[in-house]
Structure formats: C-alpha cells, structure tokens
Amino acid sequence: MKGTQMNTPLKxxxxxxxxxxxxxxxxxxxxxDNQAHLSADAxxxxxxxxxxxxFEEYCSAWATQLTCANQFGAxxxxxxxxxxxxxxxxxxxxxxxxxxxxxxGYEINRDFSTLHQALHLWMLAHSPxxxxxxxxxxxxxxxxxxSSEIEDRKAQNPPPxxxxxxxxxxxxxxxxxxxPISQLPSSISATPAAPLSTPHSQLSTxxxxxxxxxxxxxxxxxxxxxxxxxxxDAVALFDQVHDRALHYLFLPPGAATVFSLWPGxxxxxxxxTHSPRLHVTxxxxxxxxxxxxxxxxxxxxxxxxxxxxxxxxxxxxxxxHEPTLILDEFDSxxxxxxxxxxxxxxxxxxxxxxxxxxxPNVRFFKAYSATALAGIGELAPTLAQRSxxxxxxxxxxxxxxxxxxxxxxxxxxTLGRQIARWxxxxxxxxxxCDPVMPPEVINRxxxxxxxxxxxxxxxxxxWPQRLIEAFHQLQAxxxxxxxxSSAQPSSITDNLxxxxxxxxxxxxxxxxxxxxxxxxxxxxPNRPWAQAFNGAKPITENRLSRYLASLxxxxxxxxxxxxxxxxxxxxxxxxxxxxxxxxx
Length: 584
What we know:
CATH class of the largest domain: Alpha Beta
Number of strands: 10
Shape: elongated
CATH topology of the largest domain: Rossmann fold
Strand content: 5-15%
Helix content: 40-55%
CATH architecture of the largest domain: 3-Layer(aba) Sandwich
Largest sheet: 5 strands, parallel
Strand order of the largest sheet: 2-3-6-1-7
Oligomer: single chain
CATH superfamily of the largest domain: P-loop containing nucleotide triphosphate hydrolases
C-alpha cells in the first residue's frame, strides 16, 4: 500500500473495540514479528508484563500506539494499511475473493471479525512455507478464567480452525512380501515432502476430529523406486552409505553404522516383529539432528517427514499408508500429547494397534511403522526403551567434509534405491534370519537391535563385527550420565538460569507465566535473549521450553489470579542439575 493511503490515519487498528475482536495470540505474533519496525515506546509495550493487563487494556494500549503509526518503520506501516484495507466493510468483496484463493488445506474462520481474517491472511501470505498458525494459548487461558466478560468474548470469537498445508499423494498398498521386479513401482518422486504444520493448540483427539480420515488421505509421502539391477556387492554398498554419513555428520563412535543399517530395516520392516525407534538427540541446537534425518530420509521407503503431527492423523496415516515416519522437533510437542507418544510406542510392535470408538462402533487401526525422531533432550522412559539412541554434539570447526544440501541428493537417493533392490532380492533370507547377537542383548534390547543384526548378518563381510562394535560403543555412551546432568554448566545455561531466577526475584513471586518470563528476559540489558538465543533467533516461549526441557525443567499449567496459562515455578530452578549451588 503506497502513496496517499500510507498517509491516511488508521481506523480499525486505532479502535480498541475492533482490536478485541482479533485473537490475542495472532495480534501479538504480528507485532512481535515486526518488532524491529516499532517505535521505542511501542517496542517497550511488548516487554511489558501482560499478566497484569486484561485483554481490553492490552488492546487499548496498542490502539493508542497505533494512533501514531507514522513513526513506525515503512514495512510495518505498509502492512497495517494493507490489512486494514482488506478489513474495511466497503472492501468485503476483495477480502472474500482473497479468502477463496487460499491453498488447498488452508482455512480461516469466517466467524471472526474481518480485521482478524485480514490479519490472519496477511500472516499466512508472509510466513515461511510449513509454518502453522498460530497458537491460541493466551486466548484459551483467558476463556478458562471464567469472568463474564471473557465468556461474552468466547461466544463472539470461537477459536479458529486448524490451518495446515497438505498435498494429496495417492499410494498403492505397501508390498508386504517381495514382488517380482516387474511389479515394483515404476516412478520416484525425489522432491522432499513439505511438513504437516498443525498448531499445537489445535491438536485434537480422534473423537473430536471427524475429518481426520480425510487428513490422513491428504499427506505427502515420497516413494522410492528400487534400483533396476541386482546389487552384486552388498558390503561395498553399505560401506558407501557409512562413508556418506560421515561425509555430512559429526557422529559419535558407532552412529554411522546404525545410520547405515537402520534404513535397510525400513525396507524390510514387515520381516521383523519389532521396529526400533531411532532417536537422534542432543543437549543444544545446532548439532546436526535435522541433517541426520534429511540424510536418513533419502535412504528409506514411503517417507512421511514432518515437524508436527496430530495423533488423530498419525494412526490413520499409518493404517492406510504404513510410511516410514521421520519426525523432527519431536521434543516441541511430544510432552503435550501423551496419545502421540503412546501411538509411537505401539508402532514398535508388528501387532501394535490403536483402538478407537467412532459413534457406536469400535475401530482398530494398525500402528506398526518404522520411526525416526529428533529433538533436544531425553525421551520419556517408555519410548526411550523402544529406541536406539544417538546423541550428537556440535561439530568442531573444520570437522565436516561437506554441507548436506536438500536440493542435491541424487547420490543419496541412488543409495536408497540400491538398498531397496538389495532388500527386495534378499527379503526371504532377512525374514528367516535369527542373528547372532552379544549375550547381554536380551528382552527389549534384543527387540530393538535384532533387525539391525539380521541386516548386518545377511550383508556379511565385516558388517556383523562392525555392528557388534557399534552396539558396545553406543551402549557405553548411553549408559554414561546424560550431558544435561553435568555439574559444569555451559555459559549460556549458567546465564539463562541466573537471569530467570532474577526475574522471579524482581517479580517477588514463586510462579510466573512463560509469556512473562520471556518478555522479562528480552528486557534485560547486555544479554543475548532479545537478539539471539543460542545462535538462533530471539528467544520465544517454544525455544525456552525446549531448552529448559533438556535440563529437566518443564512448564506447567498455572493459575495466577483469574488467568490460566503455561508457566514455571521458582522451585524448579532451585533443583536444576546444572546449577545446584544457586540459591535465592
């Protein structure tokens, strides 16, 4: 929006009553994303405690700031006028037309005000692909508070529906046993699948989500065409995979062996009674977890790669397509949805299933699938017991031979196709194999490692011995104290915990909402929280939650006055294993 309209005073954004009809989290996210273009006074408002403001007071304060919007940066001013132009009553046909051209799978609630719809549309249009929109925890917390004003607003503004970008990919039934090569799929789509993107606040159970079957049909799953010729030297093939893993990744001893054999088991997953979860973890960001999943995904069949997944979609997708699940950022949503973790646990067993009541009927869904997960910190004990765990560390300067580039994966996909052909030709031998394993490999440990030992034994050569060495190396590493229990905190952890304790001290309370903690951290001078957090973008509630979770500190649902939201207790920071000597 240029020229004269840029100089026109805003109408809707300067009307407090109009702002109250916009979802609070949407408005806040828009302002936070444009913080660099705010005036000093307006930026200060973002760091003000929202716990002491009602939603009406919050909107009134912003309406006052937006009255003087000409002092804002040009990009924000242009955005405000563009959104308001769409939201004005006289431009309703333009807004309606714009909403009708959303990509398939996106939806904006037409029951909200036109200002909310226009702002939501602008955010979707100017956001990176695959980003979900946005959480409504603040709005939900206000609705749970129980005041009559909030209940009135609840009736006027129901929460928006889930927005998710999904594409249709019709698949034939997976091959349960080897078929002649002439019957194998004749095409491959090597384009990385776009992740499902579902706001955490919108996750639902199957009973609440009758459209989940449709969602399960509309997921991007990449097929992998087996190599056209037999593989004469399996040892050399898997040696290539092993070397390629070390080409891109800084790995602990034994990890490259697992990264080479685990994809082989995914091609023959029905030959085994159990499929080990592969958990790639670290204590901090930037250690190569996502790169590891990108690499593994090139080698596996029927890949569904996502950074977020609803339980209702998960078991329907697994039942229908039996994909290889590649789940990144698992730590960011796993603890909030126990059903999701339970379904992944069930998928460890060939006969695992999910049982759901749909009306008067009981329905069974197959849950068995090969699954790789990545995230910061440790898994819940039940899931960790079903996993082979690879803990990564940040690569020293010059340690990596090359950077993995998702745009250029022809070599890795060729390796995956060759693995697919080798498994196809040796499926009967793999299924019949009762591999020799170390004597200490029993019970669930044996369930987890037997598929890899079977693959290694059928490959032959040095691979059985290489896997025995990898097993002992990884078991030793995983039995050692977790890095998060070290008595020597890193500088970032030391500073962060100290600053959080100071935030509690300044607030003179023992419980604080996560929103307050983040804003208070950003307001501390000469600290990195407002500019970059651990080499990433400025600190947010999600980044703080994930980092603290790696230290064993988790947010809780708290009530402060009339408000309910996720937050932290001071007592949790007293007993942090990384800073036992801190006291307040």
